[in-house]
Amino acid sequence: MTDRDDDWSPDPPLLSAYADGELCGRPELDALRLRIEAWLGSHPEARAELADYRQLHELWKQTTPPDPAGPAWATIEARLHAASAPRPRKRLAVGHAVAGILATAASIALLLWWSIGSRTPPQDLEPPAKGPAPAPFADVEVLPVATASEITILRVEGADTSTVVVGILPLHGPLLLAGPGDVVLNSVQPDARDQMVPHVRIGGSERPMIWAPLLAESKVP
Amino acid sequence: MTAGTDLVIPDDDELLASAMRGDRHAQDELFRRYRLVAYRVAYRLLGNEADALDAVQEAFVKALTHLPGFQGRSTFKTWLLRVVSNASLDLGRQRGRREALSFDAMGVLHREDVEPLVDDTQGRNLEREDLRRLLRHALDQLPPAQRQTFVLHAEAGLSYREVAGTLNISIGTVMSRLYYARQKLRLILEVWARNE
């Protein structure tokens, strides 16, 4: 085993996925699964964490919600039928009235158009369009746009970002962005380059993390 | 005695095709096939039977009336569960069901300071309803996206890939959400166990 192997440890979410059996039955992940199992052999604290996961899973199973009372499903089914039933047609008399109004409106519109058209000199009219009008953005290339949740940052170089990166650069692998409450700030030490490099601890170990620059910081002279 | 007839159970695709054409029997069968998992997901997100049934009804009405828009990029089950879980979160927000449960002690807890999760003895001594209520309170403390992800995985039994497809997020995001959800649930349950 090399020094590199000695230093290796699975990301906690990866360990969580291992506990969920997500690495099983996938030959392409066999090597990773075996590596995690070997690592677990010498890390009792991680084994205890997996035991906690299993306990949580057991607790979850014990509390499966009770099935609803008997008539509940029949009631919902009846409501679904009512919702999907075709709506009754409106009475014929109403239909006739609407048709009459529409016909009157169309007649008035036709009369107005004829009246205005007859007073407009023919030379002011635009020539009729020949063929379909061109699409307004026909010559613009359409680019697919991804949302934030569809993007995973795999590597961050030190000079690639103006944000403050915590961890040893360059960062490899998926970056886990923690939210408030996930982070314990131990200390904040000024750095010669960016003057603000927090040391972050999550679950007892230091993890890579990206901090968005604070608005307040940018206003400091 | 006559020869028995073969009972052919249509698969989801066949049912979907029929339901899209307006076949009420197919729609009913889809409802019966998935109502329980839909209900359990809604119950976990809402915490009581009445609200869960409301969410299930609303979700099925939406799903069945929008069947022609279903493009088959996911299974009907995962599509339905997305509708159900979104309807549940919306309903929860509308009804302001979040109960005030203080876990102020969480802020000062460190992972290494706490005892292991609820031990078996405590688990056995708790009534099931108490356990359910405890877990519901714990779930309520999670951000909605984590709660939805966790419930779809733990209750509906969706794989990471299926959860990713259901919520239109990456598998990495599923991993991350599940990890943080578990960490928070453990902390909350540990606080409870300490106070017992």
Quick take:
Chain A is an alpha+beta fold and 221 residues long.
What are its keywords?
heterodimer; A: 221 residues; alpha+beta; 3-stranded antiparallel β-sheet; two-stranded antiparallel sheet; 7 helices; 7 strands; extended; disordered C terminus; B: mainly alpha; Arc Repressor Mutant, subunit A; elongated
Describe the structure.
The complex is a heterodimer of chains A (221) and B (196). With 221 residues, chain A is α+β, with helices and mostly antiparallel strands. Helices cover 42% and strands 11% of the residues of chain A. Among the domains of chain A are: 3-62, no CATH class; 152-213, no CATH class. Chain A has seven helices and seven strands, in the order ααααααβββββββα. A three-stranded antiparallel β-sheet of chain A has the order 4-5-6, with no helix packed on it. In chain A, strands 1-3 form a two-stranded antiparallel sheet. The radius of gyration of chain A is 34 Å and the shape is extended. By secondary structure, chain B is an all-alpha fold. Chain B is 67% helix and 0% strand. In chain B, helix 1 (12-20) crosses helix 2 (24-46) and helix 3 crosses helix 4 (76-95). The longest helix of chain B is centred in the C-terminal third of the chain and has 25 residues, at 171-195. Chains A and B meet through helix 2, helix 4 and helix 5 of A and helix 2, helix 3, helix 6 and helix 9 of B.
Layout of secondary structure:
The complex is a heterodimer of chains A (221) and B (196).
Chain A: H1 3-7, H2 12-19, H3 30-41, H4 44-62, H5 70-84, H6 92-119, E1 155-156, E2 164-166, E3 171-172, E4 184-189, E5 197-202, E6 205-206, E7 209-211, H7 215-219
Antiparallel strand pairs in A: 1-3, 2-7, 4-5, 5-6
Chain B: H1 12-20, H2 24-46, H3 49-65, H4 76-95, H5 120-125, H6 128-140, H7 144-154, H8 160-167, H9 171-195
